[in-house]
């Protein structure tokens, strides 16, 4: 299975369960987006599948609709289970229900890095992170429009973010 937003989301849920940390839909959404940004900046590849994973600028920050719709049943409560998807098996002509798993080691390292850095953040702190002036969300958001946030904006922002960390560590 290709890397996609749901496989990234499921891995964050695994990490939250491992660490016994509650994660909500809003917090999950922001962490998936931030991991996507770091992956673009550090590894030059997307954690999203361009066939069905877009990032949109919604009122409360960047949203990946596939993740939103998979976990919206939890509302503001803690997510307790990973999501499943239906895949069509061409050979047996049957539907298979599978958990999207994140099997790429580089992608897992990015998700783990983001988890370690942001697992203690509240949902409102995660929203604040993605709403700062100059963020891709801030550049794309128009009330009620759900504009797409281009990967080029996300990559540029997180590349600058990483470079600032590197520069400040040299001082």
Summed up:
It contains seven helices and five strands, in the order ααββαββαααβα. With 171 residues, it is mainly alpha-helical.
Description:
The chain is mainly alpha-helical. It has one domain. It contains 7 helices and 5 strands; from the N terminus they run H-H-E-E-H-E-E-H-H-H-E-H. It has helices at 5-19, 25-43, 65-71, 105-118, 123-131, 136-140, 151-169; strands spanning 56-58, 61-63, 85-89, 94-98, 147-148. A 3-stranded antiparallel β-sheet has the order 2-1-5. Strands 3-4 form a two-stranded antiparallel sheet. A hairpin with a 2-residue loop joins strand 1 and strand 2. The mean pLDDT is 95.
How large is the count of helical segments? 7
Distance between the termini: 43 Å
Overall mean pLDDT score? 95
- Residue share in helices? 40-55%
Number of strands: 5
Instruction: Tell me the strand order in the biggest sheet.
Output: 2-1-5
InterPro entries: SocA_Panacea (IPR025272)
Organism: Bacteroides clarus
Protein name: Antitoxin SocA-like Panacea domain-containing protein
Domain Antitoxin SocA-like Panacea: 28-137
How are the SSEs placed, and which strands pair?
Blueprint: H1 5-19, H2 25-43, E1 56-58, E2 61-63, H3 65-71, E3 85-89, E4 94-98, H4 105-118, H5 123-131, H6 136-140, E5 147-148, H7 151-169
Antiparallel strand pairs: 1-2, 1-5, 3-4
Protein name: Antitoxin SocA-like Panacea domain-containing protein
């Amino acid at each position: 299975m290709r890397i996609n937003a749901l496989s990234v989301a499921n891995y964050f849920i695994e990490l939250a369960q491992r660490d016994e940390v509650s994660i909500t839909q809003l917090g999950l959404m922001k962490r998936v987006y931030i991991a996507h940004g770091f992956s673009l900046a550090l590894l030059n590849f997307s954690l999203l599948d361009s066939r069905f994973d877009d990032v949109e600028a919604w009122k409360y920050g960047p949203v990946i609709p596939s993740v939103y719709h998979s976990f919206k049943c939890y509302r503001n409560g803690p997510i307790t289970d990973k999501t499943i998807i239906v895949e069509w098996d061409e050979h047996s002509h049957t539907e298979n229900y599978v958990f999207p798993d994140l099997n790429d080691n580089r992608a897992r390292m990015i998700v783990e890095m983001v988890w370690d850095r942001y697992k203690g953040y509240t949902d409102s702190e995660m929203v604040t992170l993605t709403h700062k002036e100059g963020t891709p969300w801030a550049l794309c958001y128009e009330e009620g429009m759900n504009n797409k946030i281009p990967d080029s904006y996300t990559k540029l922002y997180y590349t600058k973010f990483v470079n600032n960390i590197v520069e400040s560590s040299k001082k």
